[in-house]
Design brief:
Blueprint lengths: L1 H22 L4 H12 L2 H8 L5 H16 L3 H14 L7 H14 L4 H21 L6 H11 L14 H5 L5 H4 L2 H25 L3 H18 L9 H8 L6 H13 L2 H6 L3 H18 L7 H27 L9 H26 L5 H11 L1
Helix pairs in contact: 1-2, 1-4, 4-5, 5-7, 6-7, 6-11, 6-12, 11-12, 12-13, 12-18, 13-14, 14-16, 14-18, 17-18
Keywords: Endoplasmic reticulum, Glycosyltransferase, Membrane, Transferase, Transmembrane, Transmembrane helix
InterPro entries: Glyco_trans_ALG6/ALG8 (IPR004856)
Pfam families: Alg6_Alg8
Length: 377
Amino acid sequence: MRYTVLFADVVLFFPVIFLIFKQMKIGETQMIKASMLTLMYPGLILIDHGHFQYNCISLGLILFGILFLSQGCDLLGSIAFCLALNYKQMELYHALPFFCFLLGICFRSQNQNGFFRLIKIGLAVIATFVLCWLPFLSSVESAIQVLHRLFPFARGLYEDKVANFWCTLSLVIKLKNILTTEHIILLCLVSTLVMLLPSSLDLLIRPSIQRFKLALINSSLVFFLFSFQVHEKSILIPAIVVCLQINKDPFWCVWFGILSTFSMLPLLIKDGLTTAFIGSTLLYLILSLSLYDLVQYTGWRKSLQKLLFLVSLLGMAVLTIGSLTVKPPVHLPDLFPVLVSAYSCVHFVLFLVYFHYRQFTLENDKQDEVVLKKKVS
């Protein structure tokens, strides 16, 4: 059975990684380096091949969606996203950037082409959803049952000790003790929508390929931090798009890759993947340092960047060793999972701020302009 995961990697995930970096026109050497480091991302390897899941399929489809949109193929990009979403509902994390980017492109058209393009995209989306849902539409009961399984509100605010805002907040305020489940769902919904607005509106008003990729990171991070019923494995959704930024932001991408893997430490320990976690993370770090100059600043900024990275790595190392060797107090059985989630959450908030900054200070490059001209013509 585990060979089926490798088969999905070889058939779907590996090819799209090479294609998407080749499409960036960064040169063959840089393409190989970026592809190699992305394929060595330990988080996805450990979850798919250790925890045994098929995240490579939904993530591969979402990458095909990004690839198609980068080439000006709106319909194929929309279909790829719909397939990813119907395969795994957590791809809702990426839904708003796809919507805002395509709508923004249609709005930029100076004639009726934009309206007809929007109609064609809408029909493609509807047709894809109908085909995917056709087996479950034989009765209303079966369709409702599928929806209940897709959105399991009864399972609570988050799974285990996940590194998001609500789990960290529970160290101070126990929301479930003061609010009903319905009120918590509403709170999560409002918080998520409010946090999504800046990035989404910016993409809608100023659509570009690079801004689209950054908005995908920001949207999925917001969902991970603030939405209802989040699992620790959901961090793979923003992580895979962060990997695409390796040639533009190597320091932040590598840092995110290591931290996102570390945030799943309690789950990996539970699955008996401790040795694999340590080995794959160290290999990823060594490979990153050998392929890229991570510290790109000079002067005091360079010193600060090095200090932040080293302190962060030291904290991860201490918590990893503590989780494996120190027996927690009887009255605090989840001490280390809670510390890992809170420590990771602080980092994710920092990443969210940084990638928002990158999106709002971004200027369109020549490749973006070429693609946009094709789209609006």
